[in-house]
Amino acid sequence: MKVKGKVWKFGDNINTDDIIAARYLNTTDEKQLASHCMETIMPDFSKKIKKGDIIVAGRNFGCGSSREHAPVAIKGCGISVVIAKSFARIFLRNSINIGLPVIELPEADEIDEGDEIEVDFEKGIIKNISKGKLWKFNRYPEFLQEIIRNGGLMQWVKERYIKSE
Amino acid sequence: MTITEKIIARHSGKEVVVPGEFVESNVDLVLANDITAPLAIEEFEKAGAKKVFDGSKIVLVPDHFTPCKDIQSAELVKKLRKFARQHKVRFYEIGRAGIEHALLPEEGLTRPGDFIVGADSHTCTYGAVGAFSTGMGSTDIASAMITGKVWIKVPPSLKFIYKGKRNKYVGGKDLILYTIGKIGVDGATYKSMEFTEETIRNLPMDDRFTMCNMAIEAGAKNGIIEPDEITFLYCEEIGIPSTNFLKSDEDAIYEDIIEIDVSDIMPQVAAPHLPSNSKSVDEYTDIKIDQVVIGSCTNGRITDLRRAASILNGHTVHPEVRCIIIPATQKVYQQALKEGLIDVFLTAGCVISPPTCGPCLGGHMGVIGKGEAAIATTNRNFIGRMGHPESYVYLSNPEVAAASAIKGKICHPDKV
Asked: Percentage of residues in chain A with pLDDT exceeding 70?
């Protein structure tokens, strides 16, 4: 799978309150959540972006709450992948579980807002088309890849537990 | 092995585990609240699951937007009630409940040596009793409700050694704010924070809950304290077994050891917008505040209310300040009433809220407006955390919050 999109750049420690403020968590509806994505730190983010666009951020992306609404909101507004220098652990789990691709890239600083990026998940390559740069990224450990191959955690659980009942 | 590794090994059918290893662990308790449980229930049902692994080990606590703030949140709690009835899982209705991380220990549901997961990042609180407990998302919790298991990567451990006598008004909150200030909000990402030695051995249980509660603010997977004499007395009081007291081995391997001389630490205040922006309260000279919140899963226990009342007793809240007191549970509320603390608060001009997470996450019951500042005993001061994106939250212990309520600006309790 390959995705291509324009970069929206964020800094370090983007927390789950930035991604989706708690006052909007009185729903589980993906579209409603998506409409408020990032609005605390970038008003109208969900209107500005195009489907397939990419978030690039610094360290500790998604820190704070366990709210799965955060990756749901990001995925819901059409972001194809989040690339960050590092991720907070609950956000990373949640993203894998719901099928939002997330990539750790120590060189994320070398990507700027507005750059055109292409991600090749099979080859593990990120191409910065605007700057003519190429990076290889680390795949997830085998255990997580198995979950991803199964189509997310619930599918994995279904195969192993529910079908066998 | 460290205490964390021992608990994980025991729950994964292994003699030994090592950091970095992926294991599947049996859980003793699965928790979700009114925000996270609805998504978990949807995933549970979408997967076609018919039954939970063990209803007595699943707890649903509506505490974030309760008493329900609007129609949508009322609909969310209805989902929890229905699921709880259908699957006979534990459900705590308002009036018989409180904030999850204060409630569960009170109910004796979090025991030393347990492996606990919850769809709330502050689930790490229960490390205070010597349990392994960690926050996850709703899908992980849906999976755990079906299987009774979670996958986990064994975390490397960081050992924090606290030595020296605590200064006046320095409690668990100050130790953890200071620690997060030292290592940063991602200083322990994916890791276990083990709080040890002299100062911790003398630290009351409620302060231990506060410290472990905020391990997540340094990005940690869990915070943990080895059970000791204080834990033993706590177990007796609550009526839970003190049989699974695990300790880290002498030769346990730590990724890093951080020594902190507590006698250097003064009451701490974390400035907007990160919990790691902590400094001594005396460094804040003229920060006017509009609101004070004393409560939350971090500092809403009886010890916290006693400390706040000891400062507010005989004083009144500054005329330009609103002071909100939130006993974390029904029992804490009742105890505060018995001890005359509620009277102290009311006489001082505070408002008493029913147990709720409410203002901590800008949900309800004390949201702040544009340009306003609050000092709160809560755990996060991110942008817009308590309300408007252009508002400001300072984090502190209960005494500093109470003193600031009286003075109308951030101040040391000695100045009251």
From this structure: 99
